[in-house]
Amino acid sequence: MLETSRPTISVIIKALNEQRRIAMAIESALAALRGLNGEVILADSASDDHTVEIAAKFPIKIVSLSRVEDRSCGAGVQLGYQYSSGRYVCLIDGDMQLWEGFLPVAIRFLEENTDVAGVSGRIIEHEKENLEYVRRVKTEYVHHGAGLTDCLEGGAVYRRDAIDSVGFFGDRNLHMWEDVDLAVRMQAAGWKLARMDVPFVDHYGHSGTAYRLLLRRWRTRYAFGIGEVLRGSLGKAHLPFLLRQWKRFLFLLATVHLWWLSLLAMPFILSAKLAALAIVTLGLLPFAAMSARRRSVRLGVYSVAAWNVYAAGVWPGLLRRRTNPIDWIESTVVRDLTGRVNAAATDGQSPSAKV
User: Fold this and answer.
1) What is the CA radius of gyration of the chain?
2) 52 near 16, Cβ under 8 Å?
3) pLDDT (tens digit per residue) in 93-114
4) Which of 60, 37, 36 is nearest to 15 (CA)?
5) Looking at domain 9-208+330-341, which of 3.30.450.20, 3.20.20.20, 3.40.630.30, 3.90.550.10 is its CATH number?
6) What would the pLDDT profile of 231-283 be if each residue is shown by its tens digit?
């Protein structure tokens, strides 16, 4: 493709069953592109609600997975990328609203800092009840200051040259931590990542209880993601970056496993009464400690529950068979930029043709 005909930036919106928010996300992307030579691509993971039908009303490209079995966070990222052509690529989720004015600032930043692969900004969380998002604001987003960073959680603007230099954008095998995987691969290749102290997106997360969300994350294999990232990094140049930068997180997962083993060992090393007392005491200790640290019993109990789910998910993720991440993802163009719509793919049926 000639450089003169290539869009300056591609905005990829990855989505699965986002009928409530998808119009907002698309409208915000189109507004953010005003004055820029750009394109919007909806990367749909074979939604079975009205996400695609709603999106088809907008002047954007829509692509969808051909197989429900291919659903994953990493596959959604790579799906959109394989149909994009911009020199820069902006990635957001279908429940996000991109701030107008962010893209020109991000592009200018990348043009001025040629050693930076990607740049993001502040994520403004609007879900105030679900404990998962309350926890994120208190433990993750609080560190989102301006400057270099180890990871661009929640999306960012990346330069295409940097993505191509590491082989692929999203690892289709990953149900979680696809942003961590991308970050360590880029840093292993010599790139830097940065965050600006300007608004990037508004995020409207899942409503309802956090525990229902945890159950959903186990059923959809989202909780397997950490093990999948570890599996994909074995023998690769980015493994040391993963172990070094995320050692605290991985240490906590190892601590959960040690906690389980300690509870199981008590009946074998202590008398019945002492073992019962030790199990109760040791069993309650993490909940008390996390509640004190979070200054909230509800948040402390949820944090321990979440850590247990993700620790349990390490093993099925670590043992799961991998597909080559550079392989083409079977998919269908539901709507192209000329306005042509594949009607069969907008009536609630999963598309099946490979493009």
Assistant:
1) 21
2) no
3) 999 999 999 999 999 999 999 9
4) 60
5) 3.90.550.10
6) 999 999 999 999 999 999 899 999 999 999 999 999 999 999 999 999 999 99
